[in-house]
Amino acid sequence: MVIHMDWKKCDYPRNQIRRAGKALSKGDRNVFDEVKAIEIVDSWRAAHAYPLQVVANNLRSRTKDSDIIVVQRLKRLDSIVAKLKRAPWISLYDMQDLAGCRVIVPAVNDVYAVSDAYRKSRIKHKFHHTDDYIAEPKPSGYRGVHMIYKYHSDKTPDYEGYFIEIQFRTKLQHLWSTAVETMGIYTGTNLKAGDGPTPVLRFFSLMSSIFALEENKPIVPDTPINRKEIVAEIKYLCNQTSILGALRAVRVATQDIARRGVKARYYILALNSETHIVSISEYSGLEVELATREYTVLESEGGKLNAVLVSAASISELRYAYPNYFSDIGEFVKMVETIIQEK
After folding, report:
1. CA-CA distances (angstroms) from residue 194 to 198, 200, 201, 227?
2. Average pLDDT of the chain?
3. Strand 69-74 to strand 145-150: parallel, antiparallel, or no bridges (unpaired)?
4. How many CB atoms lie within 10 A of CB 95?
5. Other Cβ atoms within 10 Å of 336 Cβ, number
6. Which residues sit opposite 255 in a β-bridge?
7. pLDDT band at 6 (very low <50, low <70, confident <90, very high)
8. Quick count: other Cβ atoms within 10 Å of Cβ 338?
9. pLDDT tens digits for 231-247?
10. Which residue among 99, 188, 235, 328 has its CA within the 20 to 30 Å range from the CA of 122?
11. Quick one: which H or E segment has residue 45?
């Protein structure tokens, strides 16, 4: 595969990437000031676009005749910085989820079938490890299977060893995860990392256990093992708090799709959490450099604007894979409403 001239390469050596990460995690301005550190992080992240595209294309070719959806994304800058501060022992250079593919499948059996098939395939990328959060759910309630690879190609040595994360989720697990992300966006908290009001965090861990029971898999730690007890606690939280009302309030947003007459491969989703308007900008496969630059500009604006650069086959697939950016969590809300009606 020939690299198009628009594919980004990192402008900084390994030692500067590590130092930039430390500067952000510890606030050490003696190493780099924040502006320079962010510049280095952005260059390092952008350089992952090519190996990510290679892995995503391979996954799509293996699943193109099925109802499996494959999308890809570069990690948001604010998420990178938050992770470095939350876990300062992590080196930016060795961060494994700067570039990730999301594979959404119908059921749990499909998670293992598709991930195992990929693991046993003849790809040249180097398998690093698997995290099975279905067998052992996170305390937050997150469930899914993550596989970490190191990119390898004799033809593109500039990207040798770059980490790529592949997330395999069922539709039910994806529904839960995007509901959490949506609430996090509108409340300005990082619920995925355990940052937020205790009742909200508890509500989502309980909902995840309900979904785990439906998939006949292990429940979330420190939640009841009996469905009736889980439902009773969910009812209590919904009666005592405004959680359900908040979910209902954010499930519809306006779309503004910036059509440019291109065959889109990349999209920037920018959600304003005050106006509930999401703007979608499209870029062709040859405009990844332009998309990355404009993504960086949007991220620098901060405030109520929450942006992400992703790749998907179509707008409809994009909406399915990233419903949190459309506040499209109506299905999750309906499931909560059904659960709290149980006797």
Report:
1. 9, 10, 7, 23
2. 85
3. unpaired
4. 22
5. 20
6. 278
7. low
8. 9
9. 999 999 999 988 888 88
10. 99
11. helix 34-46
The backbone torsions φ and ψ at residue 286, rounded to the nearest 5 degrees and listed phi first, read: -90, 0
**What does the pLDDT read at residue 335?**
93
For residues 280 and 294, the answer to whether their CB atoms sit within 8 Å is no
Q: For residues 9 and 45, what is the distance between their CA atoms, to the nearest angstrom? A: 10
Give the integer Cα–Cα distance in Å for 190 and 256. 26
Q: Are 231 and 207 a contacting pair, CB within 8 Å?
A: no
How many CB atoms sit inside 10 A of residue 103's CB? 28
State how far the Cα of 333 lies from the Cα of 203, in Å rounded to an integer.
Answer: 13
- Cα separation, 310 vs 318, in Å, equals 8
Query: Is the four-CA dihedral 310, 315, 321, 324 of positive or negative sign?
Result: positive
- Contact criterion met (CB below 8 Å) for 55 and 149: yes
Residue 276 pLDDT grade (very low, low, confident, very high; cuts 50, 70, 90): low
Torsion angle in degrees (nearest 10) through CA of 36, 39, 44, 50: -160
pLDDT surpassing 90 at residue 205? yes
CA 148/CA 305 separation, integer angstroms = 30
Q: Please name the amino acid found at residue 3.
A: I
- CA dihedral of 249, 321, 168, 90, whole degrees rounded to 10: -70
> Which stretch of DSSP H or E encloses residue 271?
strand 264-272
Q: Would you say residue 113 has pLDDT above 90?
A: yes
DSSP string, 190-252: -GGGT-S-HHHHHHHHHHHHHHHHHTT-PPPTTS-SSHHHHHHHHHHHHHHSSHHHHHHHTS-
Residue 254, pLDDT score? 40
Determine the Cα–Cα distance for residues 175 and 328; give it in Å rounded to an integer: 10
